[in-house]
Fold:
Amino acid sequence: MDCRTAESLVNAYINRTLSVEQLEEFIKHVRSCPSCYEELETYYIVHFAIRHLDDEDGENMTFDMHKMMEQDLHNRENYVHRQKIRRVLHIFLLVLFLLLVFGLLVFAAMRLGHIRIPI
Ligand SMILES: [Zn+2]
Structure:
C-alpha cells in the first residue's frame, strides 16, 4: 500500500469501515511509515477530542492518546489475525466435509457393487 492510499483510508480506519484485507494492509503500512503513522495519530486525536467534547466528566481527565492509539492498533492487529485463523479453519472444515462426503459416496458405491477393488 502506498502513502496516498493509506491517507485516503484513515477516516475509514477510525470509523471502522475497512474490510479485513484493507485493515491488514493499512496497519502494515502505518507500522512501517512514520509519516502515515503521524497522520493517523493526528486524525485519531481530533476524532477522539470531537467525540468527547461534550463529556462533562471528561474535563478533568487526561488521556495518553499515543498509548490509546497504540492499543487500538494492537487490538485491530489481533482482530485481523483472528479473522485469518477463522478463514483457514473454515477452509479446513470445508475440505474435511467434502472428504467425508466423498468417502461416504465411495463407500456406498462399493456396497452397491458399482466399484470393485481388485484383490
Ligand atoms: Zn505512508
About this structure: The helical segments are 3-8, 10-14, 20-32, 34-51, 65-111.
